[in-house]
Amino acid sequence: MAAQTELLAPALMSRSDVPVFPPVALSAEAAPFTPLGTDGWRLGSPSDVEKQFSRCAAKLRALRADSGQLREELNLLFDQLLSENYNKTFDPNINIRPEDVCTLLKHVSCLVPLSQEHLVIKLCQLVHHLLNQLKVIMDERTLDVLVNYTAGALKVCSTWTHSDVLLALSTIVYGNGPQCHQHLNDLLGEDGVLLLYSSPSQPNMELRRVALTCMANICLRIPGQPPLDDQYRSVSFRVFLKTLQSPKPPNTDELFYCMVIQAALKGLQCCLSGGKWKFGGGEEVGSVLAALKRLLFQGTPGVSVEWPAVLYPSPLPQYEGLSASKPVEPPKPIESQKDAAVPGKTSGNKKRKSKGKGKKTSTEESRGDDGEEDDRDPVPELQKGGGREGGRGEVESLSKPSGPSLYPSWKKTSSDSEFSDPEGSAQSKLRLYHGRVRQGALHCLLAVVKAVEKRTLYGYWSSFIPDSPVGGLPPLTLLTIIRKDPSPKVRASALQVLSAMLDGSRQFLAVAEDTASPRTSYTPFSFSLATSVRELHRALSLALLAETSPQTLTQVIKCLAYLVANAPYHRLRPGLLSPLWKQMRPYVRHRDVNVRVSVLTLYGALVTTQAPLPEVQLLLRQPEVSSSTGSFTPQDSALSWRQRDGVSSPSRTPVKPSLQSSHAHSPHIPRTPGEEDTAPPWLLQLCVLLVTQPREDQSDSEGAGTGGGAALEPSPVRLEALQVMSHLVRGYFSLAQACLCEIGQVSARCLGETDPSIQLHGAKLLEELGTGIIQQYRPENNVPESLRVPISQVVLFWSEVLSGPLNGALQNEQHPTLQTSACDTLPSILPQAFAQLPEKMQLMCITVLLGLTYSENYLVKTAAVRALGVYILFPCLREDVMFVADTANTILAALDDRSPNVRAKAAWSLGNLTDTLIVNMESVGVDFQEELSDMLLLKMLQAATRASADKDRVKSNAVRALGNLLHFLRQSQLSRSAFQRPLEDAVLALVKTVQSEATMKVRWNACYALGNAFRNPALPLDSAPWSCDAFSSLCHVVTSCKNFKVRIKSAAALAVPAKRGCYGDLKQFSCVWRSLATALENSEDTNDFLEYRYSASLRHTLSQALLHLLSVSQSQDMPALGTSLAGEEGRGIKEHLIKYLRAEEGGGEGADGEKDAVGDSFTPQQRVGGLQETLIRLKELKAEGEEWGEEERGKEVVVNFLEDLLKTCEGP
């Protein structure tokens, strides 16, 4: 009444009391009208609430425990504080300092003794009121004081107060569980008060609910804070799970029970969020999933099922047995019956309960509201849950997938809202609470999906995603909720769970295949998985047709995008993507911007998955069809704000006549095949329009243009359209290349805008275009010249781009990400086209890149260094000594950068630069070597040596550069004293890397680098002290390394030296031979099945290396060779050499796209010819010295061995 009196007071004032208002001129700039109170203060001013709080807080702080009227004063001040609304959503200008609240609560807790239980309750209510509404983050002292007080109240005060005390405690510990460690034993210990009150045996449901809420808030983890101790998390987890598994106590109100379940679900979600699963093995996972699956259908009409207590992982479907409910009398003459939604096959040893048979001819089924497992007759529960639900359209068909059943009950009601009951009856409230339970169960299931390992979760897919062919009674799965649940929020949550399950499932779904007919005796797992994919397509497509809520519709389309991104369509029968492609077209014009964005995301997934996919290629080639003749959705009539056929209105400015003409083409006029091939894909046209053209309808609130100008599409739509264009160019460049210039214009336009995000995506689109052109010109792709983009057109394209707004993006230091992306476009220029660009543009590109390597931002520097590493390979630049020197100095500076990303790219670029040195040495000759500075080469050698001790991603390219540099150095340089120590350090760095525990890629690159160094005839392999270490490391690796690719590279390196002297003395040569022979003998010994694919290549390389050693061997080597070839070892070697000599193809596999060190491209005839030459040379060898007799005997054995080998190979 006080509030009413205050509101009526102004009306009773006399005219003299009315405040005088200053005159205000009428204008658009005038301040909005705000009524004044009697004292001149603006009504609703934050000062009112703050004044009241400050006044009461000051009085409370002035009170002392020995005050005479303490109890009355506390009562009055508590009531005044509790009467205020501190919620900032009500008034965002409320500014009460958190420290003032903390000081107040600490002081008041000292004034209220635990014996005054009514005051204790009011204080607890005040704590909850202030902390909850003001979102106060307490300091450690306040937290300790309040937890101590409430914990003491729970021990001392009567039970009737505990509900309010626990509510206050739950607010205090919200997100502060780890900080309350000294009180956790009292709360969650063996006899803890929270365990007592949260027990399923607790009769007081309100106490049980608040205790569970308190436990949930203790388990809640705030990002950046440590998690709760595992001991207490596990205790809480078991309590929450036990609560979910326990049946509803008898004589308990359904609403209270739903609130308890909601609290337990929230707690379980808090236990699982922010970390991996830590609550036992598969049994616990199965128990949680079983409990959650039961709650997913809480209150769903007609579902009365015997739910299993545990779900077990299995590749086969696990069905629940059906416990049928008696039919409920319908209020209207609509034929209805009990639910028959699930198959009758039971899970485990559970028997099916049957309490009557339903009518088989009915197509509509009434659904009860109680989904609890109960042995009693379900009729009272159904009546309690609203037996007349059929009259409100809550009837459902779960068995017939066609006809009226495509539109579930929520499509037939007059309102889509959960609050649609105008009377606010108990039934409406119960439906609301049931919906919240289902939504909470889905949120919890989402936390489980994120916490449990994907591999573990795959075993439970059949419990949530149907994997049986359509037909018969469908099981209760997530798809049932998505299609049938009356709440749009619940449907959206189910779609989020399904999306999380599909996300990252590509490796699991890759097994799916149904291109071949399955055997009739059993159904392969691959076929079952393919059936799941098809069922997901079917169900989500039907959900798409029926959905009316824009938010849920967005989730449906996003879920389809996850499915498309992970399903293996190249292993499935074609036809899944075509209906989806056509069904999505009308939604591009949907009024809701989020729906439009999600549609573009789905199209992006369609053109990305396993690109190029033949089915998608056909869809892209199809001419655009008007919506009136194509697919049609129930919402299509409301989507007419963009013209249905996509034709630009006269008010729109066309991007290019070629695109405009393709839009205006009538769908009724047939096109010739040539026209269809050269016409731009419909999706590309659409994206160009969305990015560049203004919207036709400015009525919706998506940022319509002001000042009479036409507004473009909202930024999210334009960004997604640009991404789709990038995906399209990357996967289907042959279709997009017809619009090369138009796409370039779109990119240029985006780069010229002010929005950095649009500029960034425009630059990425340019990069994809350039990469697509480069891929066409790669020899290994075998693209006919007639189908490539002509060089002249590529030159024109890049001339326009480089003279456009790209320069501005390259120099935009305010947005380093944009600068980085713009920098990434420069190395995507086709090298042949770069050579034909004007010299001014070439210099501009080089100068900009060299300058950007000095940027303070590591992203920009990384991109610039990488770009230089690409440019150094361009034929028109690599012979320019000045450019090579400038690039080398820039890379050397970047190798010392503090950022590991910059150093990694600098090492990669240094590897490319040294590759260029080798190419120039072979093509240009000594002239290039002499022009390059010795001092620069020395710096490069020393920098690469230092980098070889860096992280693995730096090291892998540093050793590659070392191998090239050691190959490049001339005799005049190696003989200089300045090079002696760096040379030794470089070789020893390679040796150390070969023998290290680094990643295999680093080790095989180091082996390749040693082989590359051995190619340099100027290296003193016969006399240098490091030579023995180099050969020993390779011999050790070729026999002992578990990785076969490392063995292949080491064997190839051992076969590189062209002269016998390079192998050192007899002992070292014999060591190399024995190592290769042992490696060949053990070439199939491995415990890793994945290595077997390289075993043939390893034997090929080892055989080649052994023959190479024979070809350079001298007379002093014959005794050792003869001993090896004469025994059992020789017979094994002979078998492998026969296979090698007869093999049609070379075996060696390159690392990082490099050729093998030996480079085996010989035919069998050439190999036999080389063996004959070796045999002739060995026959001509003359034994010398004291050991000539032994040498002759060894020579005879070797010659006989080779002759037998030749006879075998030359024979039939």
UniProtKB/TrEMBL annotation:
Superkingdom, taxonomy of origin: Eukaryota
Gene3D superfamilies tied to this protein: Leucine-rich Repeat Variant (1.25.10.10)
Domain DUF4042: 436-616
Ranges of compositional bias, category Basic and acidic residues: 386-397
InterPro entries recorded: ARM-like (IPR011989), ARM-type_fold (IPR016024), DUF4042 (IPR025283), HEAT6 (IPR052107)
Skewed-composition ranges (Polar residues): 624-664
Family matches, as SUPFAM superfamilies: ARM repeat
Biased composition range(s): Basic residues: 348-360
Disordered: region residues: 322-424, 624-679
Database matches in PANTHER family: HEAT REPEAT-CONTAINING PROTEIN 6, MALARIA ANTIGEN-RELATED
Annotated protein name in UniProt: HEAT repeat-containing protein 6
Lineage: Eukaryota, Metazoa, Chordata, Craniata, Vertebrata
